[in-house]
Input
Amino acid sequence: MGTEFTFSSRRSPVVCLHGCVASSQPLASTVGLDVLKRGGNAADAAVAIAAALAVTEPCSTGIGGDAFCLFYNGNTGEIRGINGSGRSPQAQTLDFLERRGYTAEAPPSAFDALNITVPGAPACWCDTVELFGSQKLTLQDVLNGAVELAEVGFPVAEVTAHHWANWVAALQDSGKDLGEDLLIGGHAPKCGQVFKNTALAQTLKDIGENGKPAFYQGRVAQAIVDVINQNGGVMTLDDLISHNSEVITPISTEYKGVRLWELPPNSQGLAALLLLNILENFPQLKAVGHNSSDYIHVLVEAVRLALTDTLRYLGDPDHVNIPLETLLDKSYSHQRAQDISMNRAMEHVEPGPVTGSDTVYFCVIDSQGNACSFVNSTYMGFGTGLVPKGCGFSLQNRGASFSLCRDHVNCIAGGKRPYHTIIPALLTDSETSLKNPQLLAVLGVMGAFMQPQGHIQVLLNMMEFGMNPQQALDAPRVFVQYDHKADQWLINLEEGINQEVAEELRRRGHKVNWPVTGHQRSQFGRGQIITVGDWWNPSVTQADCPSRVLWAGSDPRADGCAQGY
Output
């Protein structure tokens, strides 16, 4: 495969009539499609895919991590969400960490057992099937495809093999051993090598038969607590038993006739909405041209403003007051947009005055018009790399997102959820009523702080530049990141963006990294999109096509595909 990893082929959007799935692994997409064909709905298929990805892409996701779900009900138009993020152990207070010698300047290593928060994914899967599922399939039926992949084995895909090896190396560098469950003879599996995980197959079977208690009580729970305590963590059985998902009302904003739906804090969905609200103040985006220096300059400055506000104000709403209404008010974003000058990068970005990860993303639309937008993550690769004995999965390190600054909204506390990067999204028509809006798309782009930036870039690719869902994912992306060590913002530009654009951005005062090629492209995230109809096509009037054709795309930066029937 080499380091080249060039994007040399093209792919058509997948078009179909009845049901459609899109994920980062073809085997997982197939499992989801099977569930739809057996009478399951979008929620059933999403959980089937989540479980299949936990088997086939354990270096990005798994039952030792967290999950978030957005569900659109095709009958009623109602949109609901599940926050499946876990909390820190009750004993893990700032005082406790300070007594162990940790500070904001010197926190625990990202892979430390102290960064394990309660895995929320298994509860989220069970709740998604129970609350939103078709009720025609049992949880066991839904998880069967994943169980079979784990028992029989599957050949490891190309991009996954690369990341698997990289994360194993990162864990070994930090003095960790991933254990036998997730390796073959002590090594990461190679592309095309068949990998089995019988321990995970058994854990998934147990969850299928007994639901949440199979994970949060008994054998698995005891194994989780044991491995954490052996490695210096403080999670207890009570922390696991008391875990619950939260059913939530999504937040949204309107942009040029569409409404983008995201999950509220502690998820960073707010960042995507703030970003879209700021960009609404620049009506010339389409005219300046896709990925032109003017376009990227405005996008970058808007990202800097939106992320600065999100990092300042976002935490666990059960622990802090978050001024959501003020932040999402259009007048607030209008005021923020005034800080952007077209010919020069902003010197310093301060949070606005307010009164008051690695991951997998996938989506499903079924034949009844239900849609499920779902994201599942162990944060950094295998998370902490700690594997509970005989369970077949690693435990996440989402707690690395907490702050150790005492007065910060996202400061560590016992039983608290951290700032969460993972966000699924939905798009509806804003002309219809808020009560039962018409579904236009399910979409998402995984990848830590890239996620809100990715949502907006692929959305604008379709809305402003008329790209189909596959083209919108194929197009070169921009990733804005804050480099804490250098105390500056860095603009990463993917291969395919012109050199003159990179030079012009430098002239305006941006620190630019160009071109980003090969496997370094993984920083731009990996997205999936399914749309209802081709509303993004500028040459189509909706009168032309009343038929309900589904269009889908899958990111070339991953191994996956969209499939439909």
Residues 281 and 334 are 6 Å apart (CA to CA). The first helix runs from residue 26 to 37. The chain has two domains: 21-247+359-397, 250-358+421-564. The mean pLDDT is 94.
